[in-house]
Amino acid sequence: MKILIIGTADTKSDELLFMKQCVEREGASGIIMDVGVLGTPVFDPEISNAKVAAAAGMSLKEVAALGDENAAMTKMAEGAVKLTLDLYAKDQVHGVLALGGTMGTDLALDVTAALPLGMPKFIVTTVAYSHLIPPDRLAPDVMMILWAGGLYGLNSICKATLSQAAGAVLGACSTVTLSKPERPRVAIGGLGKSCLSYMVELTPELEKRGYEPVVFHCTGMGGRAMEALIEQGTFVAVFDLALCELSNILRGSVVNAGAARLETAGRLGVPQIIAPGASDMVDVQTWAPLPDAYQGRPYHAHNRLIASVTTTLDERRELARFVAKKVNSAKGPTAFLLPLKGIHAWDAPGQPLHDPDGHRIFIDEYKQLIESPVDLRVLDMHINDRAFADEALGIFDAWVRDGLIPPGVVTGNEER
Q1: How many CB atoms neighbour CB 358 within 10 A?
Q2: Is 369's pLDDT higher than 80?
Q3: I want to staple 242 with a disulfide (CB 3.0 to 4.6 A). Which of 74, 189, 358, 394 is the partner?
Q4: Which of 325, 321, 307 is nearest to 254 (CA)?
Q5: DSSP β-bridge partners for residue 125
Q6: Count of CB atoms situated within 10 Å of the CB of 316
Q7: 272-277 and 235-242 as β-strands: parallel, antiparallel, unpaired?
Q8: HSE on the CB side for 120, CA within 13 Å?
Q9: Between residues 134 and 71, which one has the greater pLDDT?
Q10: What CATH number corresponds to the domain at position 334?
Q11: What does pTM read for this prediction?
């Protein structure tokens, strides 16, 4: 087992060597990649910074001459990505362990995002899971640990963190089950069953048809993971039925998946069935004071972490324009489903976010904005009705018959 250890060897030689010792103490090999630019390390890394720069098409001197630390490290990130992918393709590295403050983390995010799902990747960072990191920089399965007490030199607290990280990536490499599908995979965007329940019907029906359904929880990182895996060619079709992350990004909520949400499948021509599930509200932190702009709005606390408030009519119109632009630009088969009776459990009659007048205006806006050749279907039902799942499956089945989606692999064992 070989672990690639990435960091700036001129400033963090002690830390990198300590992690290598931890890895090799457990019988694995540690390969240090130096991504520093200016200093000279006190040891000879297995992959020098000069080699990293060369992989980016420059000499180390030329990188340093850029005169800007951001530009220099961006170029080093380019070289690090190329070298790491080459090592992975040749089966010469089985896991990645990166170390850094904001500078090293910036580079490490590029490297880990370029690697496929299932390749163990761990970042020791001073900004672990920070809001400084935009969702679209994160690999679907990247792991992080806060680099506590270790920005400059080794100490007992720092060693505890670094050794945990080394053990974590080794454990992941030892136990990972690589993603090797036996059936074509289909993505489903959703929320918890108490809010959006269509996956209860969609999942077994897709399995009966010989597909592997993969459901994503669209609370920020879930939608981001789905987009990243669509980019990697993982899915033959997408049921993108929960667009709450799009409403969230327009309103500045932290529960978002980045501005490119709902674009990847359309750009790549992957068949997609879309609905504006749970997108007439904004998600907020239950534990934080409600922003002044949301005071007085209908409010629902889902748990002690996340709550939602309704959006105004103008905010819904803005969202409809935002979504429609993405949907209309899709290059592949696209259907857009508009349920007239509601788009999540909490907007039903008697529920805290029930707003029939606002929903009607929301629907009318979409009816005007969605353009051909998108298959727009206005449905006299609620998104959680069984009839909604049946409508989506009918479109999917027609696309399969027309050869737009590859057939499933039916083995006779699909019934649960």
Answers
A1: 19
A2: yes
A3: 189
A4: 307
A5: 100, 146
A6: 24
A7: parallel
A8: 22
A9: 71
A10: 3.40.50.12030
A11: 0.86
